[in-house]
Design a protein that fits this description.
CATH topology: TIM Barrel
CATH architecture: Alpha-Beta Barrel
Radius of gyration: 18 Å
Order of helices and strands: EHEHEHEHEHHEHEHEHHHH
Low-confidence stretches: none
Strand order of the largest sheet: 1-8-7-6-5-4-3-2
Number of helices: 12
CATH superfamily: Aldolase class I
Strand content: 5-15%
CATH class: Alpha Beta
Helix content: 40-55%
Shape: globular
Distance between the termini: 42 Å
Amino acid sequence: MAVNQAPAMSRSDWRGVIPAITTPFDAGLAVDHAFLARHAAWMVDAGCTGIVAAGSLGEGATLSHDERAEILRTLIGAVGDRVPIIATVSALSTAEAVRIAGDAQAAGCRGLMVLPPYVYRGDWRETRAHFTAVIRATDLSCMLYNNPIAYGTDVTPSQVAELAVEFPSLHAVKESSADVRRVTAIRSLLGDRLSVLVGVDDLIAEGISAGAEGWIAGLVNAMPAESVALFNLAREAARGGDWSRATALYRWFLPLLRLDVVPEFVHLIKLVQQEVGMGSERVRPPRLELAGEAREEAIEVIRTAIMTKPAV
């Protein structure tokens, strides 16, 4: 039984700007729960509509089972009465993924972001069986995460549709193939049955234009007001408004948003947080903090963006 008595998520809750929150570490590389709570509240205050925890940006693979559970409890205590807390379900085995899903429900999470298995890249029969087991493990609202670039498993629009027909609790898909045509393809097969969310930071305006309703965002960890403003301006423009304001903000933001789509995206987003005074660049091994020319180049991009930041 879930400890949280908040209402169950529905399809309509998978919308807006939902941060994939970073995991803060103290000087000893333990999770900094006090900052985690403050960081989450700061983003929700800026207009974010949920929090996804312990994903790849949250360095989930470096967290122990107990740390993951404590992170979820901290976030639920900090902002769980205001927005849904969504647990990332990623594991090497289906059994472990099912366990993570059950633990998330017990902690009080209201949704799950469900990934294909790590490392092993199965065929559709195997991948479908994995998704089926996780979705059936709880009655929580689920978002399927498709990221063939990072995980090597591509869930096609027709396969997404197959799952959506069978599972009423599948309410959303995070589309991170970097192919904006996937948004329209899913829409053509399912209409409004699923909410489609963009999972690539530097594709958000294009994704909204194609019909996406949400953004699982990275740079929002450092720039929540700007992220929410960009999303809202693009949504207004896509509904028949003027694209000029959204385009201007997007052009300013793009050098930062592109930091989300390189192998060092965790290091870089945490570095942006540090530069804006809302976090630290500390990462857990095997990651190491950026150094040398790579760090200097990143700092130049970040500080230029901060100095030229428009009012929102």
